[in-house]
Amino acid sequence: MKGIHSIFLACFLVSAFACFLASAFDPSPLQDFCVAIDDPKAGVFVNGKFCKDPKLAVADDFFFSGLNKPGNTYNRVGSNVTTVNVDQIPGLNTLGISLVRIDYAPYGENPPHTHPRGTEILVVVQGTLYVGFVTSNPENRLITKILYPGDVFVFPIGLIHFQYNLGNTAAVAFAGLSSQNAGVITIANAVFGSNPPINPDVLTKAFQLDKNVVTHLQSIF
Fold this sequence. Notes:
Blueprint lengths: L1 H23 L18 E4 L2 E4 L26 E6 L13 E7 L4 E6 L5 E7 L2 E6 L7 E6 L4 E4 L4 E6 L5 E7 L7 E2 H6 L7 H8 L3 H10 L1
Antiparallel strand pairs: 1-2, 3-4, 4-11, 5-10, 5-12, 6-9, 6-11, 7-8, 7-10
Helix pairs in contact: 3-4
């Protein structure tokens, strides 16, 4: 009887762990595809999502055009991210993958940020990029690499990472993400540009900065 209880407990723990993993990442599809729709009256409920009736799916549900066009990098960080996720291609729903094009002005950067729901794999097609990510507490180790056209680098899920264009000419990269919508949290924007603002006393203590510096940063973000 004791052995049966042990087996039952082990099965329960494995099942609980599996459920935890399933809730942390995009669900695996139980059908060929599940084209996302906003109106549940026009679809069927499959695999936890409202999906277009597969018989009504068309090529445009799986199509996006425009990644050949450079993004506008005329901004304070000198970069632009063109996203192709489930919002642009509804056929990506439940498939656990998406794509971005990143354009960098000379010496522009994709500032430190995280993707809470996806790992990123990036390939450089033009220019020279200094890239890196920081491991989690308590080590906070910086792992960096200089990339040239054809080079590939991986940013693990949830870790803070960045890319910086080292050259005086434009750079371009493409990246795949292991989620239909990986999400993005740009660190500076989130911390100093939250709505409503974080109490400056909190940030003054957290970053060991003068309060005037904190309020100035909040004013520009």
